[in-house]
Amino acid sequence: MLRMHNVLDIDNLRVGFPVKSRGIPFMGDSSPNFVEAVCGVSFEIAAGETFALVGESGSGKTTLALSVAGLAKAHAGSIKFEGRELGDFSEQQMMAYRRDMAFVFPDPIGSLSPRFSIKSLIVEPFNIHGLSDRDLDKEANRLLNLVGLTDDFADRYPHQLSGGQARRVGVARALALSPKLIIADAPTAGLDVSIQGEILNLLGKLKREMGISMLIITHNLSVVRHIADRMAIMYLGRFVEQGTTEAIFAQSHHPYTQALLSAVPEPDPDVALKTVGLMGEVPGILRRPTGCEFHTRCPIAKPQCQDAAPPVTHITEGHSITCHFPPLLDVVNQNVKP
């Protein structure tokens, strides 16, 4: 894909939260008064590009997205939107920024207030941003048609919608102000497989026709493969692998990525499934392991992994992993289905 100017530039971003111990001991000591949920991540999203954040629950994906939206304050690093530093925005500039950025929430029905009609819900952004002088009936019909719904949906209420229809309404609402960036948190969560495909096709169509950039948050790698141009794998707030979707699916190099990919269902019954097993469970961010934080679950961990944080290794241009021993990862590759 031809790369254009960047809509979003993230550099060494760190996001943390204060923690009160309430007198509860952790690991033989009191809990820290500050904990990092996002730890020094960097990436960019070009105009018209889709970037996916992938990882298990608690990996920091949503916190990162909230920081991009200006809803969670970063304590270090940089967020630039079309070259402008987000931290330098005045209140008025932040309001304008939020017109250029929109959320698609993970719960299709729960994110829609049951008290309002579909028309009221999808034109609400115009009212919030002082644009209610427009013909809101016309705008509602335009947005409904844009996501494949007919005009008569304007008079319905959320309880009258199926999950797929509710998701389309959420997308229509996000498109109301013609944003440059859409953040979609688990865009296919709770939907049947066939409906998931329809929503992904819709998002892909809108991206191509409107040139919108997208940040997708998901743990579903099938979604990523279908829609994302590039992706990053997060673990405990850090990127362990980052690159084009094509390159990572063709040959991933980090054992955590390998494990996630090996769990993706294979529709061909003749393909033998081989998995990469991980030991233990995801540690909490209040109990971060020393050194490489993945070493407690890693199948190729060595003593050095417990003592020092791993460096970033560039496999090819734009494809990097964070690991002490990247050559050993070929052993992992042999245990994963092609």
Short description:
By secondary structure, the protein is of the alpha/beta class. It has a single domain (6-100, 179-333), classed as Rossmann fold. It has helices spanning 61-68, 91-99, 118-128, 136-146, 163-175, 193-210, 221-227, 245-250, 255-262, 303-307, 329-333, and strands spanning 6-18, 25-26, 29-30, 34-46, 50-54, 76-81, 84-85, 101-104, 181-185, 213-218, 230-235, 238-244, 312-316, 319-322.
What does this structure look like?
By secondary structure, the chain is α/β, with parallel strands linked by helices. The protein has a single domain, classed as P-loop containing nucleotide triphosphate hydrolases (Rossmann fold, 3-Layer(aba) Sandwich), CATH 3.40.50.300. Helices cover 30% and strands 24% of the residues. It contains 11 helices and 14 strands. The chain has an 8-stranded mixed beta sheet with strand order 8-9-10-5-11-12-14-13, sandwiched between helices. A 4-stranded antiparallel beta sheet has the order 4-1-6-7, with helices on one face. Strand 6 and strand 7 form a beta hairpin. Helix 3 packs across helix 4, helix 3 runs parallel beside helix 5 and helix 5 packs parallel to helix 6. It starts with 5 loop residues before the first strand and ends in a 5-residue tail after the last helix. The relative contact order is 0.13. The C terminus is likely disordered.
Q: pLDDT below 50 for ≥5 consecutive residues: which ranges?
A: 23-31, 329-338
Distance between the termini: 25 Å
Strand count, sense and closure of the main sheet? 8 strands, mixed
Query: How many structurally independent domains?
Result: 1
- CATH class group: Alpha Beta
Number of strands: 14
Range of strand content: 15-25%
Please give the CATH architecture.
3-Layer(aba) Sandwich
Into which percent range does the helicity of residues fall?
A: 25-40%
On the 0-100 scale, what is the average pLDDT? Answer: 86
What is the CATH third-level topology name?
Answer: Rossmann fold
Q: Which structural class do you get from the secondary structure elements?
A: alpha/beta
- Radius of gyration, in Å, reads 21 Å
